[in-house]
């Protein structure tokens, strides 16, 4: 199904067309279940999340704008947000970033960063320009829903350092993507 | 950019939000800000577009068969139950349901002089029967392509609580386009020529309940209560 078809199904869903909604579900549920499962890592929770996702899609379909985002990206965003909200709801609601910054260099992780499936795109190339551990942190955060706390612990750095890393990595990524 | 450059905080915050790393309270604060700060919301949208390149890492996984029916039960058990406030006139509507269809022949296909001097029956009329699954409530929308007049029958009614009925053209792709609010005192909407030309046989029309005066945002904000497709009417009135 093309992006245009998906956009049309979302627009018709916005006007309460249940057939369009069912067709949209049939076309996209596997992808979005892949998202909630990858982040929540528990089938029952991922199913609950998927239900919430389609309830949101039904209610928010009217806010989808063709041209602002691809239909698939819009749907995946809803699924990621739902799954990440559920994850974060089980974690501390606030973080204390006021650790003393640790400026010691981290040895590069010998393991390769999480490989992206599919063809190597520009994003892949730009991730390759980051240090391996930083690229892995970006991918781990986005794809797996890792929190700052988890990333900091996994990398053995204070929260504040992790935050600085990630913010700088994001901006480097953008700079590379816009090049 | 060098790593020593100052980090623009808003942009970085928007990026962190999209990345998903923030704790819940900060996520909620960002979402609240997005609702009130359009510039910030655009930063978030830009990051979403940027990082969506990572979406292909998600492998499809077929969900269990029961999920869709649970979603439908949640959504449509709610919407099928009419809200008394909004649909205080539902009983009235149900009574009119048959009448609406029966009246259609009488009201739409009257000779031109009865319908008014500005409605020459130059082209075939297009009629959409607007209904909703499991509901006996219905409207008819008839378009006279010759003058762009869209007539909604029955017309003289007012939804409760100062609400209005708004008609939408639902294109095959893209966002729905408002055709206008059904006037309180009659069901006739004059469309721009360019809009009338977009309405051909097969066009999907829908009706939503909106605040008085119509949707404030340009998209349907209230529940969509009826929809139907325009079709050519064969039994044209004779001149």
From TrEMBL, chain A:
Gene Ontology MF terms in the entry: DNA binding; sigma factor activity
SUPFAM superfamilies assigned: Sigma2 domain of RNA polymerase sigma factors (SSF88946), Sigma3 and sigma4 domains of RNA polymerase sigma factors (SSF88659)
Domain of life: Bacteria
Gene3D superfamilies: 1.10.1740.10, Winged helix-like DNA-binding domain superfamily/Winged helix DNA-binding domain
UniProt keyword Hydrolase, yes or no: no
An individual GO BP term: DNA-templated transcription initiation
Residues annotated as domain RNA polymerase sigma factor 70 region 4 type: 122-173
Alphabetic keyword roster: Sigma factor, Transcription, Transcription regulation
RNA polymerase sigma-70 region domain location: 24-91
Pfam families linked: Sigma70_r2, Sigma70_r4_2
Family: Belongs to the sigma-70 factor family. ECF subfamily.
UniProt-recorded name of the protein: RNA polymerase subunit sigma
Organism: Hoeflea olei
TrEMBL record, chain B:
The UniProt record lists the keyword Membrane: yes
Domain Anti-sigma K factor RskA C-terminal: 97-224
TM regions (residue ranges): 91-110
Keywords: Membrane, Transmembrane, Transmembrane helix
Superkingdom per UniProt: Bacteria
Keyword Transmembrane annotated: yes
GO molecular function terms attached to this record: sigma factor antagonist activity
A Gene Ontology biological process term: regulation of translation
Cellular compartments per GO CC: plasma membrane
The name this protein goes by in its record: Anti-sigma K factor RskA C-terminal domain-containing protein
Organism encoding this protein: Hoeflea olei
């Amino acid at each position: 199904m093309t992006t245009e078809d998906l956009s049309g199904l979302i627009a018709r869903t916005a006007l309460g067309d249940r057939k369009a909604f069912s067709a949209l579900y049939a076309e996209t549920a596997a992808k979005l279940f892949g998202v909630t499962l990858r982040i929540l890592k528990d089938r029952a929770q991922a199913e609950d999340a998927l239900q919430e996702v389609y309830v949101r899609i039904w209610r928010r379909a009217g806010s989808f704008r063709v041209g602002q985002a691809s239909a698939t990206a819009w749907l995946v965003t809803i699924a990621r947000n739902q799954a990440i909200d559920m994850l974060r709801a089980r974690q501390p609601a606030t973080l204390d970033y006021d650790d003393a910054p640790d400026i010691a260099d981290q040895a590069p992780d010998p393991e390769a960063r999480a490989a992206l499936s599919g063809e190597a795109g520009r994003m892949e190339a730009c991730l390759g320009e980051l240090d391996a551990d930083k690229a892995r942190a970006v991918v781990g955060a986005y794809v797996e829903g890792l929190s700052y706390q988890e990333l900091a612990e996994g990398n053995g750095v204070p929260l504040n350092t992790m935050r600085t890393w990630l913010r700088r990595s994001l901006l480097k990524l953008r700079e590379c993507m816009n090049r | 950019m060098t790593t020593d450059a100052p980090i623009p905080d808003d942009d970085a915050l928007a990026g962190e939000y999209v990345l998903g790393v923030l704790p819940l309270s900060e996520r909620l604060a960002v979402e609240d800000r997005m609702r009130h700060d359009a510039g910030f919301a655009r930063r978030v949208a830009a990051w979403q577009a940027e990082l969506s390149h990572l979406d292909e890492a998600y492998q499809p996984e077929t969900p269990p068969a029961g999920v869709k029916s649970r979603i439908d039960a949640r959504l449509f058990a709610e919407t099928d139950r009419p809200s008394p406030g909004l649909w205080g006139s539902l009983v009235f509507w149900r009574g009119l349901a048959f009448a609406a269809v029966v009246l259609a022949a009488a009201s739409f296909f009257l000779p031109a002089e009865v319908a008014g001097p500005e409605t020459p029956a130059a082209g075939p009329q297009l009629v959409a029967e607007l209904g909703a699954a499991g509901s006996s409530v219905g409207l008819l929308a008839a378009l006279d392509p010759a003058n762009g007049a869209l007539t909604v029958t029955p017309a003289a009614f007012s939804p409760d609580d100062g609400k209005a009925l708004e008609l939408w053209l639902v294109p095959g792709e893209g966002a729905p386009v408002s055709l206008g609010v059904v006037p309180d005192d009659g069901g006739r909407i004059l469309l721009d020529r360019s809009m009338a030309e977009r309405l051909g046989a097969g066009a999907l029309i829908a009706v939503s309940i909106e605040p008085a005066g119509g949707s404030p945002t340009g998209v349907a904000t209230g529940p969509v209560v009826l929809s139907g497709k325009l079709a050519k009417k064969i039994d044209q009135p004779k001149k």
